[in-house]
Amino acid sequence: MKFRKATEKDIPTIVEMIADDDLGKKRENFQIPLPLEYLNAFKKINADENQELIVVENEALEIIGTLQLSFIQYLTYRGGIRAQIEAVRIKKDKRGLGIGKTMFQWAIIRAKEKNAHLLQLTTDKKRPKAIKFYEDLGFKQSHEGMKLHFT
Description:
The protein has six helices and five strands. With 151 residues, the chain is of the alpha+beta class. It has a five-stranded mixed β-sheet, sandwiched between helices.
């Protein structure tokens, strides 16, 4: 597998993956041509040195997974950096092959390379399989997350 930063031409494939589950279908708008909001968001992500939108390719150079790493500078932990992983997706026909575990191993190494003191994530409580997967990777439910949606 090859990990690389996403390019603008990858965005339709990425959006298709993030829209391809029960929760994603409710909040995403995958169509061709792709709505401009996605391309505008990509340009902002790509311009930010603390954001890494990553795609994972197989040997045939097919995109089979994606994730986004954000590096957040804090004053706590003596001015430490937290890495946050979001939007982890694997193409439906490639799930169950160990790709997700490999993606997280890569993300952990990348976070350490950026001198992060921890890697954190949030996941919807409606995703019990994902929660079990993260726990199996060593993630602990250490905090109670809360959100305030504006739309």
